[in-house]
Amino acid sequence: MHRPIQVRRCQVSEIIDLRWRILRAGLARETAFFDGDNEPTTYHFAAEDVGRIVGCATLLRRLWQDMPAWQLRGMAVEPALQGRGVGSLLLKMVDQTVRLESHSMQLWCNARSPAVQFYRKSCWETFGDEFDIPTAGPHLKMTKLLTKADRITSA
Question: Are 35 and 4 within 8 A, CB to CB?
Fold first, then answer.
């Protein structure tokens, strides 16, 4: 019997190779490290399938329109498992973490354009026009605001 994929908090060192292979392919491994990875308020998450890391996400405290917020970065899922719910499990963990923190209920990210529909399924909305990141291609800013009711019901 196959155990379901588990999502847990982890250290950045556990997910850096997955980030590098999927998000920074063809670039130096160092480019997979982000400013803020080692801040004490940063969360890193790993999706594991029988001990193998198959997905990752990072949540950092970063301003959104000059207000406290959380930035989602470094979201990646093994290509063979994309479309099978791994990313959704990671986003659920992100939402749960934000709801339990007092910092902010606002999330934002720079989503690769091909991933926009995936985020929309989890109630994220686009903000502004498409822009290009030279090392990663076209992106859109996306946001999600959790409500106070979300925080109360999850406590």
Answer: no
| Residue carrying structure tokens 């354009």 | 113
Residue 6: strand pairing partners: 48
HSE on the CB side for 63, CA within 13 Å?
3
pTM of the model: 0.91
Provide the residue type at 138 as one letter.
P
**Nearest residue to 109 via CA among 55, 62, 67, 68:** 62
Query: Is 122 buried (19+), middle (13-18) or exposed (0-12) by CB count in 10 A?
Result: middle
Tell me which residue of 7, 151, 10, 134 sits closest to 77, measured CA to CA: 7
Beta-carbon count within 10 A of 59 CB = 25
Report whether 89 contacts 77 (CB < 8 A).
no
Query: What would the pLDDT profile of 24-58 be if each residue is shown by its tens digit?
Result: 999 999 999 999 999 999 999 999 998 899 999 99
